[in-house]
Amino acid sequence: MKRFAAVVAILVLCANGHAVVVDLTTVGSDGHIDGGYFMQINPDESAGTGVFDSFVRIQGAGTEKGYNTDGAVETGYDHKQGLYTHSLLLSDIPTVAINGDETIYREFCLDINQNNGDPFSLDTVEIYLETDGTIELYSGFSNLIWDMDAIEDSMVLTKYTLNAGSGKGDVTMYIADDLFTGGGDYVYLYSEFGAIGVADDGFEEWGIGVGGPIIPEPTTICLLGLGALGLLRKRRA
């Protein structure tokens, strides 16, 4: 009950600000952030480990951050080396058309695994196009093509219990295809989690989508403001 009250209090404070919260804590919910479209995955659709092609796993304590690479893990970051973290070619990311939208998108999937982080926030997404798949330092990225916070401080709220387990994904993220220009053929996705909720269980996993036309569920977006709320301040390297 205390945790629920704290979350409600945070959301009320957010409503007094001016930045964007996309609330994906109800089935079929979705929302837009500056050229990106986020949608809660249907619980009946399998999407997680062993089904979609994971390219980065991130696992930390409290908050967490990381990115995909074929290089070594940078000190202070939480992505895990191994089969499920590797470089990603732009040509491997499927394109999709969303019903009623003329824009073509690149499709990514996110699998959340936090039993006690409900809701659990995705606080930052940055996407880069580079010529090298082995970059080991966050400071080594040079060609940013999309930043979730470019216009204003934004976040996506997820709910693990809507689609529990690592065998199914939780969120699909669609980024406009025309943004993927210049730089090179390697796509890097940097993300941060846990400004709301606690990373205290399994890993977060990004994978590529399956492609094909998408017909969204009825929109149940919650667009709230963040203002100067210190609890939601981004944790940069």
Structure notes:
This protein is mostly beta strands and 237 residues long. Helices cover 6% and strands 31% of the residues. It has one domain. The protein has 1 helix and 14 strands; from the N terminus they run αββββββββββββββ. The strands form 2 sheets. Strands 1, 5, 8, 9, 10, 12 and 14 form a 7-stranded mixed beta sheet that branches. Strands 2, 3, 4, 6, 7, 11 and 13 form a 7-stranded antiparallel beta sheet that branches. It is globular and about 40 Å long.
Structural domain tally: 1
Structural class determined from secondary elements: mainly beta
Distance between the termini: 34 Å
Largest sheet: number of strands, sense, barrel closure: 7 strands, mixed
Radius of gyration, Cα only, in angstroms? 16 Å
Our count of helices gives 1
What general outline do the C-alpha atoms trace? globular
Runs in which pLDDT lies below 50 for 5 or more consecutive residues are 1-10, 46-50, 217-237
